[in-house]
Amino acid sequence: MATDNLVQIDHVTFGYDSRVILTDVSLQFPRGKVVAIMGSSGCGKTTLLRLIGGVIRPRSGSILFDGEPVDRRDQEKLFELRRRMGMLFQFGALFTDLTVFENVAFPLREHTDLPESMIRDIVLMKLNAVGLRGAASLRIAEVSGGMARRVALARAIALDPELIMYDEPFAGLDPISLGVAANLIRRLNDATGATSLVVSHDVDECFAICDYAYLISSGRIAGHGTPKVLQASEDPEVRQFIRGEPDGPVRFHYPARPIEQDLGLFA
Fold it and tell me: Which of 84, 137, 230, 246 is deepest in the core (most CB within 10 A)?
C-alpha cells in the first residue's frame, strides 16, 4: 500500500568493524519532494544512499522503499527496487570511451527490450531536458565538467525513476554550472513527480531548491526541518554548520594530548 513517504529509514545503525558511522538514525523522504541530506565530509551522508540502494546492510534498523524492505539478501527483489531508483554519482561515473548519446542509452539497453528507434527518441528527450541534445555525438572527453554532470543526470533519469539520488552534485562546479545543476534538480523533480535526495555540504544551493533538509553530524541527526526552520535554529551545532563557523561544537582541532607531551616524541 502506498504511503506518503517513498523512503523511510527507521532507527538504523551502521558501521565497519569497531567504527560506527551512523547511530540510530531515522529519516523520512516524502513523495515528490526534494530533500537535502547535509553535513561535513565523512559524517555518513553517502553511506545513507548506499543503504537505500541496498549496496550495504545496516547493523540494526530497517529501510523501506515504497513500503517494501530494502534487503540485499533478496537479490531478485533488490534488482526490482533498484530499477525504480536513479543515481547521480559524485564524479559522474560516465563511460569515457562512449559518446554522450551512448552513455544515456546504456541503462535503456541494459534494462529494457525497447527497439532502437524508441531508445533514440528517449535519449534525445532526456538530453534535451538537460540542455544537451546538441552534444549527443560528442565524446565525454570533449565536454566540460559541468556538461558531463548533466550527461550523468540525463542517464540517471533515463528509466524515469521514482527516486533520484544525488551524491554531491555541486562538487567541483564553477558558479554558472552549479546554478544550472541546482535549477535542473528542482525542475526535473517537479516535472517528473519524482522524489529527490540531494547529499551535499553546500548550504546555499541546497536551501535554494529543497523542501526539507536533514543535518547529520557524527553519525546522528543534529537537526532537521525546512530551510526556514533550520536557518532560524538556535542549536549551536546547526548554527555552526549553516554559518560555516570554524569552531564550535564541531572542533577545529582533532583530539590530542597536551602539546608538551608530543614535543618530546618528535625532538
Answer: 230
**Are 247 and 223 within 8 A, CB to CB?**
no
Return the higher-pLDDT residue of 250 and 202: 202
Query: Facing residues of 22 across strands?
Result: 14
Question: From CA 231, how far away is CA 225, in angstroms rounded?
Answer: 9
Q: Give the separation between CA 114 and CA 262, rounded to whole angstroms.
A: 66
The C-alpha cell of 244 is what? Answer: 560555516
Three-state secondary structure of 146-205: HHHHHHHHHHHCCCCCCEEEEECCCCCCCHHHHHHHHHHHHHHHHHHCCEEEEEECCHHH
Give the pLDDT confidence score for residue 26 in this predicted structure: 94
Chain length of the chain: 267
Residue 25 CB coordination number (10 Å): 23
Alpha-helical segments (H) within the chain? 45-52, 75-82, 100-111, 116-129, 145-156, 175-192, 203-209, 227-231, 236-243, 259-265
38 Cβ contact list (under 8 Å, min separation 6): 45, 199, 200, 201, 203, 206, 213, 214, 215, 216, 241
**Cα–Cα distance, 32 to 196 (Å, whole number):** 7
Residue 180 cell numbers, joined: 544550472
Is the separation of the CB atoms in 163 and 197 below 8 Å?
yes
Neighbours of 93 (CB within 10 A): 12
pLDDT tens digits, one per residue of 170-190 = 887 788 888 888 888 999 899
pLDDT digits 0-9 by tens, 65-89: 999 899 878 888 888 888 899 888 7
- Predicted TM-score of the model (pTM): 0.83
